[in-house]
Design a protein that fits this description.
By secondary structure, the protein is mainly α. Helix content is 79%, strand content 0%.
């Protein structure tokens, strides 16, 4: 009988009252831990995003491009663009 209840709870994914009582003491601790870890992750993400948004990349030199080379690159870009639109 016990194995059939265990099998039934596993197959239906329903929590028995005993499982609910066993998990109850950990609910708030887990909720607090989730909030703390989520807030740390979110704050690091937004700090990094805001820091990178302020960078103007002025310290990176841009190599000079001649007009001929620029025209050639533009023609290649337009040709690739037409191929993608055709497909």
């Amino acid at each position: 009988m016990r194995s059939s209840l265990l099998r039934l709870s596993i197959l239906t994914f329903k929590m028995t009252p005993a499982m609910i009582r066993a998990r109850r003491p950990y609910f708030w601790k887990n909720a607090v831990a989730f909030v703390i870890l989520s807030s740390i992750t979110t704050s690091v993400y937004f700090y990094t995003y805001s820091f990178l948004g302020k960078d103007t990349f002025d310290d990176i030199p841009i190599p000079p491009v001649s007009e001929e080379e620029l025209a050639k690159l533009k023609a290649e870009y337009e040709a690739q663009k037409k191929l993608k639109e055709g497909n």
